[in-house]
Amino acid sequence: KDRALGPADAVRLGMDVAEGLVFLHSRGVYHCDIKPTNLLRTDDGCKIFDFNVAVTADSTMGGVGGTSKYAPVDFGNYGRVTAVDLVDRDVYALGLTLYEVLTGQWPFASAARSLGEQPIDPRTLTDFTDLSQELVQVVVRAIAPLRADRYPTGAEFLAALSGIGDRVHRP
User: Fold this and answer.
1) What is residue 171's predicted lDDT score, i.e. its pLDDT?
2) How confident is the model at residue 82 (pLDDT cuts 50, 70, 90)?
3) What is the DSSP letter of 165?
4) Strand 45-48 to strand 29-30: parallel, antiparallel, or no bridges (unpaired)?
5) How many other C-beta atoms are found inside a 10 Å radius of the C-beta of residue 123?
6) CA–CA separation, 91 vs 155, rounded Å?
7) What is the dihedral of CA 119, 120, 122, 125, to 10 degrees?
8) Quick one: DSSP state of residue 148?
9) Is the pLDDT of residue 30 over 80?
10) 3 state SS of 45
11) Which of 116, 25, 144, 141 lies closest to 34 in space, CA to CA?
């Protein structure tokens, strides 16, 4: 909230968490509650903690806990919750978190998002007009309203964040 992190710091935080999600997902573990208060920034990078609602691939995946504010609006719209749903939920929540870390604001006009509601372009917010197109595209894609438009895996989100490099501001 106090904007202590600049855009490059936010990207690094996103990469750290995405690396953590890739590790977890490759082992069949889904956090299900990625949000700013469940991340800890240290000198060694950002760490994921609070696994009290995490599930594994071999669990029943019936009832999934977590903070609904950080779940995609279309989560659970496809019937039984699968590993694909849980990966999407973690990656989407990281996208929301990254937007908040970057801007200090919620990315949607209303707290009660509706299916199809597009996130606010962060460059329209005061003090963020100089963000690069690459950075904005990556963050906005991560929180697109429809799953088909989002990153399907943490690895793809990580690759996109890595691809930004030092291009966090407009040239």
Assistant:
1) 82
2) confident
3) T
4) unpaired
5) 15
6) 9
7) -160
8) G
9) yes
10) strand
11) 25
> If you count them, how many residues does the chain have?
171
pLDDT mean over 39-47: 93
pLDDT digits (tens, 9 = 90+) for 102-143: 999 999 998 777 788 999 999 999 889 999 999 999 999 999
User: Which of the residues 16, 33, 85, 88 is marked catalytic?
Assistant: 33
Cα distances from 54 to residues 30, 34, 130, in angstroms, run 5, 10, 37
SS3 assignment, position 145: coil
pTM to 2 decimals?
A: 0.93
**Residue 90 designated active-site:** no
Q: Is residue 56 a contact partner of residue 86, using CB atoms and an 8 Å limit? A: no
What is the three-class DSSP state of 157? helix
Q: What is the DSSP letter of 127?
A: T
Measured CA to CA, the distance from residue 50 to residue 138 in angstroms comes to 26
Give the pair of three-digit tokens for residue 33: 């509650």
Q: How far apart are CA 117 and CA 163, in angstroms?
A: 27
User: Could you tell me the pLDDT band of residue 61, with boundaries at 50, 70 and 90?
Assistant: low
